[in-house]
Amino acid sequence: MKKMINSSLFVKIFGLTCILMIICCSFTYAFIAWLVPKTYSSDLDEVLNRNAENLIAELEGTNGLESGYLFDEFLLNNDVIMQLYDENDIEIELPSQNNSQFPQPVSDGIVFEAPIHAYEAEHNYLFTFNDLTTVYTLTIIGNSNSVNQLVNTIGNIIPLLMVLIICLSVTGAVFYSRYVTKPIIEISQVSEKMSALDFSWNCSEQRTDELGILAHSLNQMSDKLSTALNELQTANRQLKADIDYEKELEQAQLDFFSAVSHELKTPITIVKGQLEGMLLNIGKYKDRDKYLSRSLEVVNTMESMVKEILTVSHIRSSNEDLCQTSFDFSEIVKKEYDFFEDLIISKQIAWHEEIPEAVMLYGDKTLIKKVINNLVSNAIHYSPIGSDIFISIAVKNEKIYFEIENTGVHISDSEIPKLFKAFYRVEQSRNRQTGGSGLGLYIVKAILDQHHADYQMENSALGIRFTICF
């Protein structure tokens, strides 16, 4: 046995390769089995801490009696235990929608007992309600059951995995040994020519003995190495293309953040204008209660806007069914003027609308509203001061036609189809008046495609016209 091992290069490489593969695979699995639970637990803890910090921020903006829904929602969405203490370290009952008294000490006899190791990752947070001066301590304890289940699952598959590792190691060692020993023998005969990268030679294959077989093998090797060099050059070109593609992905991520700012900029501008008007007691803004209410509505719109962006992206990627209902399309379009009233007045835009009453449309109301909002926003922002905006709705042959046209601007016909691409802008600057963020029309296209609606953007005699047929 020892003599066979010493005299056979194949056996040596096979044995060594098999052992190394078993050791490496076993070590890799052991490392994964050790690292994955820790990483998973750390990720859970990080998510819990982030959610808790968001909760604290919301609690500090509300009063104690009205904070119950925040605690209820957090407990519903997170598998945690929450305990609340006052400044004297006395535990008090958590505010709840079902509890009208706050603060109230924990009732006698109510003690939470968690199973051993059932909970971990305890976090303490200090905060105050906006109507109280008491500093409260909120203790949040995360559940570790999911981590324990992961550890148990990894442990249960160890026997099967070891059998698989051994089988793959033996199989891989056989193929690897054959692959390695054959070129070693061939390289020993042609080392000089190979070192010069000379593949133009050709050996005679007239012999039928071992030399003839070797000559045939050398000829094949020469052809394969020459082919390999060509493939390497092709692979290098492909690698360069992959690098360029990665750069495009990075640029797309940067453009995404720019697009989000595009969506939030308009409501922020509206709120800022209203707040400045109220602070300076200018004209109609002296009625603070009215415009504080409007500001709150705009802030709520900003919050829903972020959700809508994610919703459109999710629909685009997963092609899920839309939440379609029959709704008053005319009412949605008419409300756009109220939303953009301040901007329209500030830019001295003449608003013209021909909207019949109660035109009912079947579709996803939230997403259709997003389409109209984006189109109106684009029309206002990209129209010069003193321009006109025409909006109309018409019903023809059981089809609903929506049309919006803004005057004073034109776009190259070759650029119009590109505007519907994700993150595409006419120019690369960040100037909103010229370049835009590039997401608005992409969102419009995504929603209209999901609704199977026909749409067209074109230059008109007066400016730019966008038409939708539902």
Question: How would you summarize this macromolecular structure in one to three sentences?
Answer:
This protein is an alpha+beta fold and 470 residues long.
Folded structure, characterized:
- There is one protein chain.
- The protein has 470 residues and is α+β, with helices and mostly antiparallel strands.
- The protein has two domains: 1-189, no CATH class; 320-469, Histidine kinase-like ATPase, C-terminal domain (Heat Shock Protein 90, 2-Layer Sandwich), CATH 3.30.565.10.
- The protein is built from twelve helices and eleven strands.
- Strands 6-8-9-11-10 form a five-stranded mixed sheet, with helices on one face. It has a four-stranded antiparallel sheet with strand order 2-1-4-3, covered by helices on one side. The chain has a two-stranded antiparallel sheet with strand order 5-7.
Topology:
Layout: H1 2-7, H2 9-59, H3 68-77, E1 80-85, E2 91-92, E3 119-127, E4 136-143, H4 145-156, H5 158-189, H6 191-195, H7 210-279, H8 288-318, E5 325-328, H9 329-339, H10 341-346, E6 350-354, E7 360-363, H11 365-381, E8 388-396, E9 399-407, H12 440-450, E10 454-459, E11 463-469
Parallel strand pairs: 6-8
Antiparallel strand pairs: 1-2, 1-4, 3-4, 5-7, 8-9, 9-11, 10-11
